[in-house]
Amino acid sequence: MSTTVIGDNVSADGHVATADESLVSTTETTTILSPAEEAKKMGNDAFLAKNYMDAIKYYSEAIKYEPDVAIYYSNRSACYAALKEWKNAFDDAILCISKDSQFIKGKRIE
Fold this sequence. Notes:
By secondary structure, this protein is mainly alpha-helical. It folds into 2 domains: 1-30, no CATH class; 35-109, Serine Threonine Protein Phosphatase 5, Tetratricopeptide repeat, CATH 1.25.40.10. The chain is built from 5 helices and 2 strands. It has helices at 35-48, 52-65, 70-82, 86-99, 104-109; strands at residues 2-4, 25-27. A two-stranded antiparallel sheet has the order 1-2. The chain starts with a strand and ends with a helix.
């Protein structure tokens, strides 16, 4: 949502505000996510809810769409670590830094 204030008492559409009216107008901004980013968002929501298996599924889906994005591997690695699946966590950390050698989270797990 974006906010616009124009002048001291005039809104963007020219309405002159009274003392009790807000001078702030709002407009909705719609962001369209790629399928990979939508899957990542779902994974993030599942991770925050501690539904690690669901999060792994969503991050894996994101990887299918965009296999060269390091953050998807990093996030999936974090899920595996939360589940104490250390081998899988390590493998995804290695994949993460193979996609982006400067990705610090992947290096911390390495």
